[in-house]
Design a protein that fits this description.
This protein is of the alpha+beta class. The chain has 15 helices and 34 strands. Among the domains are: about 1-20 and about 590-674, no CATH class; about 245-260 and about 450-560, Immunoglobulin-like, CATH 2.60.40; about 265-445, Rossmann fold (3-Layer(aba) Sandwich), CATH 3.40.50.410. The strands form 8 sheets. It has an 8-stranded mixed sheet. Strands 17, 18, 19, 20, 21, 22 and 23 form a 7-stranded mixed sheet that branches. A 5-stranded mixed sheet has the order 25-27-16-15-30, covered by helices on one side. It binds 2-acetamido-2-deoxy-beta-D-glucopyranose (6 copies).
């Protein structure tokens, strides 16, 4: 099997980009289907792509799709010439070993996913003989997350060609019924809007998207190369405001709890804002804009504080004050004058924020600490572990810490760990024209606390996912899954105990709350449990060290293997016909730099800048050190660009086909820089 290796430099490549468009006669995606089924607010999506090699010589055919970051891939298979090739999920180390062996046998090995804002890439390829066909089938699963009063199912479609048989089918089963359902995203615009059909009954909804070949060339982000964009199904369900929905099936249950008819709990919120030199320019402008919006949204019985920091700590006021109009005016004035300069003393800034909240404990209120930073600590205490331990001590579990990492120069893992250690979460704010909206959006998620000290109790339940939550916010949802002891529904008694303002309230079982799923042998609830358990174990692992960490990691690994989830601890080895390259798929962690194994291509550019460990031999480039090479943090500064450069490297291997992919990555890079 001859594989043509294109040997051109990056610049030559750019010049030739216009003239070497893919030869559409080479191969043909004659069918592309995406089928997404949501039950128990858990989505299982299958992408099926059928491709024919129209040439009278064998061709390498690529399968290249994007899936949501939150999802776990659970299956990948290829059908070629009557044979099925099933991908196998293995422990990462084991897969890595297999992969290294493939490399040492001289087979170039493969390729992994990279990170965008909400999506990850899956890419593999296989050689298909003359006039033969291949079917690729990828399955991924994700728990729908309710944010700001809605669920969003994002489906990305970029088949790389107009496809005559293109279909997206979405089916949502929802016992509680829908309060609304909408279809948004770039693929719902212009001519494509006509290709969408949306129907729903009491308990089920369907969205069909069947664009014709002509329509596939006529949307905002479509071209001769077909569609490239998202279909986003946005919906919410009816709520009974009691204990919520509990579904059980086959020994397992999942409980969705999201009451909304409760009074808001007044909050105490302190914003700790990085104003170090690296924030200068657009970042600080957007931060000011967002802060002013956020201040406008505070309620009169909220209390707030504002700290900005570089190497020094600047208090707007040393103590929390009430959000009355006089204080808000003064705070907005302060916010609009924040200037970027100096270094970054995260430790002292967060400790000061915690002190303000600790000095101001109010009965029946909810305290929240929000840190916004764009870089690593550079002054004061700079040892990351010391900062984490100081912060943990200062907060002592009394309120959550939310960390917002602005851009890609932050050590996201550090922020993530610090948030998780203090009952919060970390979120990345992407450097983009909408960063102020991202900041504001995050604030809105936590703007309305309805309950504090939420304890979910399940008498007759075992192997429960997280049951204690320090705060519950309007528009969100608490999800707990577990096993029903001895599968005995009679003794299974769910209950929620929480504090609403000053009142202790109990939500308990009404007759309607426990539903059994109708379908036979439905293992979905069990998969929901496994998905949640693995996610939570991975978070826990991040916070621990030593033997405890290993234990949790082992548990997460075993579950990932049992349920065939590609998680950060496992990899999928793509099985191919004999004699082909081995591809190993890894799931990147959030905050991890995109990592990519370099394909067997001679690029003077890559050798010079990105591949110090490759050396030339007569047969081409060989890798004498098969390790993953993360991009340097410096490159990472313009991470869109960096991944763009990486994208270009794979050109030689995939021949003409990925040229269309290249122009897409370039578009992305440009958007990222705007
Ligand atoms: C989508 O997948 C579901 C579940 O596997 C299946 O029942 C259904 O028939 C599929 N729909 C289409 C249009 O293929
Ligand atoms: C197909 O094969 C025939 C005979 O082997 C050859 O003459 C012809 O050039 C080939 N066509 C293409 C498009 O490669
Ligand atoms: C919570 O959200 C619902 C809508 O989702 C709204 O009707 C209700 O007023 C909100 N509660 C508070 C206290 O803001
Ligand atoms: C579930 O809990 C039981 C005991 O309560 C334990 O024996 C079993 O191993 C647990 N299963 C899993 C998958 O953790
Ligand atoms: C959950 O909270 C309850 C009471 O607030 C406490 O007794 C229990 O130990 C907590 N459980 C966990 C796992 O933290
Ligand atoms: C269930 O319904 C019956 C009759 O309607 C009622 O007597 C009973 O108290 C209800 N049980 C619960 C737990 O609400």
């Amino acid at each position: 099997m001859e594989r043509s290796v294109v040997q051109i430099t990056l610049f030559g490549l750019l010049l030739s980009l216009a003239s070497t468009l893919p030869n559409k006669d080479d191969w043909d995606i004659y069918s592309f289907h995406i089928n997404s089924t949501v039950t128990s607010r858990y989505a299982t999506t299958v992408i099926t792509s059928r491709v024919a090699n129209r040439m009278n010589e064998s061709k390498e055919i690529e399968f290249h799709v994007r899936i949501p970051k939150n999802a776990f891939i659970s299956k990948f298979r290829m059908f070629i010439d009557g044979q099925v090739y099933d991908g196998v999920v293995k422990a990462k180390e084991q897969a890595q070993q297999q992969y290294s062996e493939a490399v040492s046998r001289g087979e170039s090995a493969g390729l992994v996913s990279s990170v965008g804002r909400t999506l990850e890439e899956f890419k593999t390829s296989v050689t298909v003989a003359a006039h033969k066909k291949v079917t690729f089938e990828l399955t991924y699963e994700e728990l729908m997350k309710r944010t700001r009063g809605k669920y969003e199912l994002q489906i990305h479609a970029r088949p790389m060609q107009p496809v005559s048989d293109f279909k997206v089918d979405v089916h949502i089963q929802e016992e509680a019924g829908f309060s609304f359902i909408d279809v948004k995203g770039g693929l719902s615009t212009k001519a494509l809007a006509n290709a969408i059909t949306k129907t729903h009954t009491d308990k089920e909804a369907w969205v069909y998207f069947y664009p014709t070949v002509d329509q596939q060339k006529m949307c905002d982000s479509c071209s001769d190369q077909g569609m490239n964009g998202d279909l986003v199904i946005i919906y919410d369900v009816n709520r009974d405001n009691g204990l919520g929905h509990i579904k059980k099936s086959d020994r397992y249950f999942v409980h969705h709890f999201a009451p909304s008819d409760l009074p808001r709990v007044p909050k105490n919120v302190v914003f700790v804002i990085d104003q170090s030199g690296s924030m200068s320019g657009r970042k600080i402008l957007q931060t000011r804009t967002a802060l002013i919006h956020i201040l406008n949204d505070l309620a009169e019985d909220d209390h707030f504080g504002l700290i900005t920091f570089d190497g020094n700590i600047l208090h707007w006021k040393r103590e929390l004050v009430q959000a009355n109009s006089k204080n808000l005016e003064s705070a907005k004035n302060f916010a609009s004058n924040i200037q970027a300069r100096g270094s970054t003393d995260i430790n002292e800034a967060v400790l000061q924020g915690a002190r303000m909240l600790n000095d101001h404990s109010r009965e029946g209120s909810a305290s929240i600490l929000i840190l916004l930073t764009d870089g690593d600590p550079t002054s004061g205490v700079t040892n990351l572990e010391n900062i984490q331990s100081n912060v943990r001590q200062a907060i002592a579990g009394k309120f959550p810490l939310y960390c917002l990492g602005f851009g890609f120069d932050v050590d996201f893992k550090f922020l993530e760990k610090m948030s998780l250690q203090n009952n919060g979460v970390a979120r990345r704010i992407y450097e983009d024209s909408d960063a102020d909206l991202q900041l504001k959006g995050f604030y809105e998620e936590v703007a309305t606390p309805l309950l504090t000290d939420v304890t979910m109790i399940y008498v007759g339940g075992t192997n429960l996912t997280q049951t204690n939550f320090s705060q519950y916010y309007n528009g969100s949802e608490i999800v707990v899954a577990g096993e029903i002891t001895d599968n005995n529904i009679e003794t299974f008694t769910p209950q929620v105990v929480a504090i609403s303002s000053n009142r202790r309230i109990i939500f308990s079982k009404s007759n309607k709350t426990v539903e059994s799923t109708g379908t036979v042998s439905d293992d979905r609830i069990q998969r929901v449990w496994a998905y949640l358990t693995v996610k939570q174990l991975l978070d826990k692992e991040l916070q621990l060290s030593g033997p405890e960490k290993e234990k949790v990691k082992k548990e997460a690994l075993e579950l990932s293997l049992k349920y065939s989830f590609v998680t950060p601890l496992t990899s999928m080895v793509v099985t191919k016909p004999p004699g082909e390259n081995t591809d190993v798929l890894h799931k990147p962690k959030e905050g991890e730099t995109p990592q990519r194994w370099q394909p067997r291509v001679d690029h003077s550019f890559s050798r010079q800048y990105l591949a110090p460990s490759s050396r030339r031999s007569s047969g081409g480039v060989i890798h004498d050190n098969p390790v993953w090479r993360p991009l340097s943090r410096q490159l990472n500064h313009h991470s869109h660009l960096a991944s763009d450069v990486m994208g270009k490297q794979s050109i030689g291997r995939y021949g003409g086909y990925s040229l269309s992919g290249i122009s897409n990555t370039r578009t992305r890079a440009v958007q990222g820089m705007m």
